[in-house]
């Protein structure tokens, strides 16, 4: 639910605006960081209304810091093709589990 709200309200507008000034390679970075900053701000607002206390630096800043770290690691992931490697590992694992499942079924059929 959060993604369905944050994409049209924060992520997409920042991405479409940043593409005018930044190359296509870096267009996602401000959108990701902006989404996390908005999320941190909204967390602080929710905590303020629930607790009726002054906002602390802990909740919102940790969310914003996570966004900055995640956004800054995106170009590195794309450069070293870690996403491709991760997909290949996941496919290999799924095939391995399917193979175990088939082997177990064959053993059950032959022993009974």
UniProtKB/TrEMBL annotation:
Q: Which domain of life is it from?
A: Eukaryota
In the record, biological process GO terms are: lipid metabolic process
InterPro entries per the UniProt record, alphabetical = Wax_synthase
GO MF annotation list: O-acyltransferase activity
Put simply, this protein is called Wax synthase domain-containing protein
Q: Which organism is it from?
A: Salix brachista
């Amino acid at each position: 639910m959060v993604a369905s709200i944050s994409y049209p309200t924060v992520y997409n507008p920042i991405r479409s605006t940043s593409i005018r000034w930044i190359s296509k390679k870096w267009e996602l970075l401000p959108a990701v960081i902006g989404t996390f900053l908005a999320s941190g701000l909204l967390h602080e607002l929710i905590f303020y209304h629930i607790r009726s206390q002054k906002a602390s630096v802990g909740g919102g800043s940790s969310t914003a810091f996570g966004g900055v770290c995640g956004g800054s690691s995106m170009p590195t992931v794309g450069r070293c093709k870690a996403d491709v490697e991760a997909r290949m590992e996941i496919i290999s694992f799924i095939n391995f589990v399917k193979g175990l499942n088939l082997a177990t079924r064959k053993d059950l059929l032959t022993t009974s």
